[in-house]
Every structure is written in structure tokens, then in C-alpha cells.
Specification:
The complex is a heterodimer of chains A (about 240) and B (about 350). Chain A has about 240 residues and is of the alpha/beta class. In chain A, about 40% of the residues lie in helices and about 25% in strands. Chain A is built from nine helices and ten strands. Classes of the chains: A alpha/beta (about 240), B mainly alpha (about 350).
Chain lengths: ~240, ~350
């Protein structure tokens, strides 16, 4: 088993002239829970979207589970099989039931039989406590329920790494907890997690390490205790003052 | 939903007025078509004394209008052929029958239709397509037209949104070129110019040329409708598929198109209705569809004065089909949009 799950070395990314990621270096160990925070526009979402190649990088190298991410579609396909992603806007398939949302990729990508896919899906839906809604459509569920379905859908591919891109930012406040609880349980199962979030209490209790990004650079990285109690970087102190009120 | 509230006197007055005006306007028509009309299987002299409709013209000419100059002894063949094609179309309209067997039906139904109509095998006497006519032709042009143009339109829409410039350019030019000319022009070109371009010895019947023209024309319109639907599918749907490792092709088939098509049910079926009505234009290249056979029926000097009844008769036939498609559109919308909590 490899020690490192994700390695970014000197990664640069541009949106035409705009330099989004500037010489980013990051290593995520296997089983590590990493929380990424920073002001909006700091490049944190872009960085994790580079990890499963939803965005491409222009310089530097990215390795995921020992495979280099380049323009080789086979490498991209291989990496996407072992990396799950949860989006801010859930991105569930509105024309499919909750259960079908969780079986589609299993039957198409992993070539599992319909029965097997359904039993995997039901097991995961039970785990995120939404099995009773399996026959409903996403449009009939609350935001928190939809996000839990999205987590189950990602897990159905049995990923080794889970990426969360601001999973609670689009939720009403009373629904944030149910999603964070599910993520917390997932973290204790030993999966590698990279989570972009502003939920500082979650970061403190679940993360092994927290990094702070600003203007496309990682400006501070530390254990949660040090990160929150002894922030070295003035920009981080300002940021924490903002989000912790 | 509006709750039952007390209806104001003003509203009541408007309701009464509207009903009154509509009734007044429709009464003369009702009087002509029903009260003063002559019914039954009578000769033309029965209608001399009345100002109402003369329906005996339909019992006399109905078979010519509906089946054209198809041999009278063999009329069961176009009737059965049309029923088969229409039946397949109706079954296809119902989502619960969408399975692999339906694909087979779509291969079998056209073959059976052409066998029954054309004959020449299985002991059926041969009937050349120049003798086919009336409603079976209208149904054939519409069902084949819609059935072939729809998948072609989807391909063109995907082509127009493709990331590969060559494919995008070909699809876009095709759509723009076809939309830039009227259907009549396309029909004339298919009838008179295409034979000049084909190598000598190639002889494609007028019917096939008209059918192909309708398919190619309709596909361009449907492509734009489908493209509009595809553009309503959020980028996040593509990203979710990418993140799950679903291939580009399957993303379109399983995720994008089902959502895109459910967004454009109304304009898609609107185009289908247009196809049905536009089949009447092939009369201009001498194909005996329903409008053409109606005119042939009126060539008889004895009944010529009763052209209104004949046109009303075929108008009712067109209306029944178009109205049914409108109802179908509503039921699909209910099944695919409202029942899934998307409004």
C-alpha cells in the first residue's frame, strides 16, 4: 500500500490570463483527513477539482494513488474510479430516483449486475440514513437529504479518496449538521478525505491537518489545534476572525 | 391552484357574455352541419332543397378520399397496413412500452406496411406506389417522417454541440441550410433535381424521394428543439458524470438526453404536429395524400358543388390526429416533469 494518496508538485493553473493556482505543493497521506479553507476566489475548489481532472493544470505534476494525471485518458479514467466527489450543488440526476442515482455508475462503469448494484446502493443509503426515501426523486427531498444521497452515490463506486467541494454551503442552516454527521462517520472509517469547507468546528474535530489558501497559494498548513489557536499568518488570523465571528 | 372563492357578479356577467358570443358565433355552423344537413346514403339530388351540409358526398366519396385509387377489392390491405403503423406509433407514445421489443416492432412495422401496400409476394397482388393514396400515405409520411427525423435530429443536436470543430461545422451548416429553405423547395428539389444528379439507371420512386425530403427537413427543426433542451441541462450534471467515471456517450444517453428531452416535450410534439400537417404539401409533387385524394373526389362534376363538406371531412381527420398529439404532450409532461418534483 502506498503511503501517499495525493501529491501535487509545483502545480500552476491559469484561466486564460488569470493565475488561479501558483506553485502549489501538497501531499495527502493515505487515510488522512485534510480540510482546505480560505476566502472565496483563493483557488481551493479549483485545487481539488484538479485532483480528479475536472480542471486541468498547466504546469507541475499531480499523482493520485501512484498514477500521474496527464492528458492520457486511461490514467484519468483510472483515477476517477478511485476518487469520489461531492459537490456544493449536489448535482444529483433529477430524472432518476434516489436508488437509480446510486446504481447508475455502478452498472455502467463497474459493470455490476442490477441486483448487486441495488444491494450496494441500499447498504449505503442505510448508512447515510435515507434508505426510506430510495424510491423518491431528488426534487422531492430537502437539500440535506439530497447531499446525503450524493455522498452515498459517490461511495457506491467504492472510492479510496473522497473530495468534498463545500458540501454544506448550499444548505439551509438546520440541515448542515445531518450532512456533517455523515461526513464525520465516514472519516472514522479510514477513507482519505479532502474537504473544502468553512465549517470550522468540523475541521477542528475531524481533520488531521488544515490548510489555508489565499490568492492561489497555500499560505499555512498545520494541525487543527495549532491552526486555530496559534495562526502564524496575519491573513489567516483575519480570515479566522471573519468566519468564527 | 385557485381555491374556490366567491365568484363576483362581474365575473359571472363575463362568463355569460363569453358563452353567449361563442354560442351565437357557432350556431350557424351547427345549423349548417347538423340541423339543416342531409344525412344518409342518398344521391346528389337529395341536397337540392337544402342550405345545409350534404353529407351523402362523404358516403359516396369517402372510400376514394381515404384510400385514393387503391384497387377497390384490396382495401383491407391499406386499412390493415395503416392500423399496424398507427398502432406501433401509439404504443411508442406510451413510456411503459419503451423496451427492446419496441425496437423490433419498428423494424417489423414498416416492412409489413410496405409488404401489405405493395404486394407482389405472399399471394398478394402487386400494387405500384403510384396507386397508393389517401390516409395511409398521410400516416406513412408522418410516422416514418417523425420516426426517422427524431433520432437524426438528436444526432444533429449533439453534433452542433460537439467539441470537435469538424462535426460542429457539418451539423451547423446542415441545420442552417435546411432551415433556410421552405419544405416545398426541398420537395421540388427532391422530385426534379435529384433525378438529374443521380447516375442514369438509378430510379427512386417519387414516394421515396418525398419521404426522404420530409425526414431530412424535419430533422433540422428537431435538432434545434433538442439543442435548446440540452442547453437547459446544468454543467454540474456533466461534472457529476465525469467524477463518477461515466463515459461521454453514456453521459449523453443516460443523463443529458433524458433531461433535455423532458424539457422540450411541448415544442417537440409541436414539431410532430407540423410534420403531420405538412405532409399535405407533397400533393404538389403529385403524391396522392389525403388532401390530394379529397381534390380527386371533387373532380366528379356531380358532387363538385359540395367541396366544403369534403374539406370539413378531411379537416376533422387532421384535427383528430393533431388533438391526440396535443393530449399526448400533456400526459408526457405530467409523467416526466411534475411527478418528479421538478416544477
Amino acid at each position: 500500500m502506498l503511503e501517499t494518496a495525493i501529491t501535487l508538485q509545483n502545480v500552476d493553473k491559469f484561466y486564460s490570463d488569470f493565475h488561479v493556482l501558483k506553485d502549489v505543493n501538497l501531499t495527502v497521506r493515505n487515510g488522512e483527513k485534510l480540510v482546505v479553507c480560505g476566502p472565496s476566489g483563493s483557488g481551493k475548489s479549483t485545487m481539488i477539482r484538479c485532483v480528479n481532472h475536472l480542471e486541468s493544470h498547466q504546469a507541475g505534476s499531480i499523482h493520485v494513488l501512484g498514477v500521474e494525471l496527464n492528458d492520457d485518458v486511461r490514467n484519468i479514467a483510472q483515477i476517477r474510479k478511485s476518487v469520489g466527489m461531492v459537490f456544493q450543488q449536489f448535482n444529483l440526476f433529477p430524472h432518476l430516483t434516489v436508488l437509480e442515482n446510486c446504481t447508475l455508475a455502478q452498472t455502467l462503469v463497474s459493470r455490476r449486475s442490477q441486483d448487486e448494484a441495488e444491494s450496494v446502493a441500499m447498504e449505503l443509503l442505510t448508512r447515510v440514513r435515507i434508505a426510506d426515501q430510495a424510491r423518491k426523486y431528488p426534487g422531492q427531498l430537502s437539500g440535506g437529504q439530497q447531499q446525503r444521497v450524493a455522498i452515498a452515490r459517490s461511495l457506491s463506486m467504492r472510492p479510496k479518496i473522497m473530495l468534498f467541494d463545500e458540501p454544506t454551503s448550499a444548505l439551509d442552516p438546520e440541515m448542515v449538521k445531518e450532512v456533517l454527521d455523515v461526513m464525520g462517520e465516514l472519516a472514522s472509517d479510514g477513507i482519505t478525505m479532502v474537504c473544502v469547507t468553512h465549517e470550522m468546528a468540523f475541521a477542528r474535530s475531524v481533520a488531521d491537518r488544515v490548510i489555508f489558501m489565499d490568492h492561489g497559494r497555500i499560505v499555512e498548513e498545520n494541525t487543527p489545534a495549532e491552526f486555530f489557536d496559534n495562526p502564524a499568518e496575519p491573513r489567516l488570523r483575519d480570515f479566522l476572525a471573519q468566519v468564527l465571528h | 391552484m385557485r381555491s374556490k372563492t366567491k365568484v363576483s357578479a362581474g365575473n359571472r356577467l363575463i362568463t355569460v357574455l363569453v358563452f353567449g358570443v361563442v354560442a351565437l358565433a357557432l350556431y350557424p355552423l351547427f345549423r349548417w352541419a347538423v340541423i339543416d344537413a342531409v344525412w344518409g346514403n342518398l344521391g346528389p339530388e337529395a341536397c337540392k332543397e337544402t342550405f345545409g351540409a350534404c353529407w351523402p358526398v362523404i358516403s359516396e366519396k369517402g372510400s376514394l378520399i381515404i384510400f385514393g385509387r387503391y384497387p377497390a377489392a384490396e382495401l383491407w390491405r391499406p386499412a390493415l397496413a395503416s392500423a399496424l403503423l398507427l398502432g406501433t406509433a401509439i404504443v411508442t407514445a406510451m413510456p411503459r412500452f419503451w423496451n427492446k421489443a419496441l425496437l423490433l416492432a419498428w423494424i417489423a412495422a414498416p416492412l409489413l406496411f410496405l409488404t401489405l401496400m405493395g404486394g407482389g409476394i405472399l399471394g398478394l397482388s402487386s400494387v405500384p406506389s403510384s396507386q397508393w393514396g389517401g390516409l395511409p400515405i398521410t400516416i406513412m409520411l408522418s410516422v416514418f417522417g417523425i420516426g426517422c427525423a427524431f433520432p437524426l435530429g438528436i444526432l444533429l443536436a449533439c453534433g452542433r454541440l460537439s467539441s470537435k470543430p469538424v462535426i460542429r461545422w457539418v451539423a451547423t451548416s446542415y441545420i442552417e441550410a435546411v432551415r433556410g429553405v421552405p419544405l416545398i423547395t426541398v420537395l421540388f428539389m427532391a422530385t426534379f433535381i435529384l433525378p438529374l444528379l443521380l447516375p442514369s439507371g438509378w430510379n427512386i420512386s417519387a414516394m421515396v424521394r418525398a419521404q426522404v425530403a420530409i425526414i431530412l427537413f424535419t430533422a433540422a427543426y428537431l435538432a434545434e428543439v433538442v439543442r435548446a433542451g440540452m442547453q437547459t441541462v446544468p454543467k454540474g450534471q456533466f461534472e457529476a458524470c465525469e467524477a463518477l467515471g461515466i463515459s461521454r456517450f453514456e453521459t449523453y444517453v443516460k443523463v443529458v438526453l433524458p433531461q433535455a428531452l423532458s424539457m422540450v416535450i411541448a415544442p417537440t410534439i409541436n414539431t410532430f404536429v407540423t410534420v403531420l400537417k405538412d405532409t399535405s404539401l407533397v400533393a404538389i409533387v403529385s403524391i396522392s395524400e389525403l388532401l390530394m385524394t379529397a381534390r380527386q373526389a371533387l373532380a366528379d362534376p356531380v358532387w363538385r358543388t359540395h367541396f366544403i363538406e369534403v374539406y370539413v371531412f378531411i379537416a376533422v381527420i387532421y384535427f383528430v390526429f393533431c388533438f391526440a398529439m396535443g393530449k399526448w404532450s400533456k400526459s408526457l409532461e405530467r409523467a416526466y416533469i411534475f411527478s418528479k418534483g421538478r416544477e
